[in-house]
Amino acid sequence: MNVFVSGGSRGIGRAIALRFARAGAQRVAIGYFRSDAAAEQTAEELRALGSEPTLVRGNIGSERVLEEVAALGPLDALVHNAASGVSVPALESKDKHWDWTMNTNARALLQLAQVAAPQMPDGSAIVAISSLGAQRVLDNYTLVGTSKAALEALVRYLAVELAPRVRVNAVSGGVVDTDALDHFPNREQMLAAGRANPVGRMVTPEDIAAAVTFLCSPESEMVRGQTLVVDGGFSLLVGGA
Fold it and tell me: Which is it for the CA torsion 8, 9, 12, 18, positive or negative?
């Protein structure tokens, strides 16, 4: 199995990459933006699990990175986990904030599909990582939430266009305690809300990874263009996100 995970050096992306390795993936490529140390550490963990790692460094939407993804050859699974954004109220956002967030979170999925899908074999899968902010309103989340809504819409269109050869779906996680939360001024409030789901514990990166690998397995053959919510039931509650 040949896999590529964008944003794969830390947090959710790392958990996804390692789960593929544990499932027997022979090659796991991870994209990352700038943290060489984290990427090398994840690569070592992949080797220890028997997978051959490949590191793809740089802006996920750049021409060079896309060329490197294309050069990986036919992928059995492509996971777009890389995400970025600016956490400000809508009226304080700038054009450059909009462009950066939309390009990284949504446009990059289209670009990755354009270079990878033509080579992907029958039964392969593309999975995008979304968030509850695509459908719910979170404080200072306008740009990221809008980009994730665009991402989910793109998943639906790609699912139809690439069927029946390639499955395309998304996973939307609840609050997950990763480094990404450090950029939110209300981090502690978000963590408290994340623990208040009906299950009574935080969603972990491994929970997201399990959903991703399911959507990349033959068992999900008839799941197309869907967004699988993994939040412990948090979004079901009145007053939830």
Answer: positive
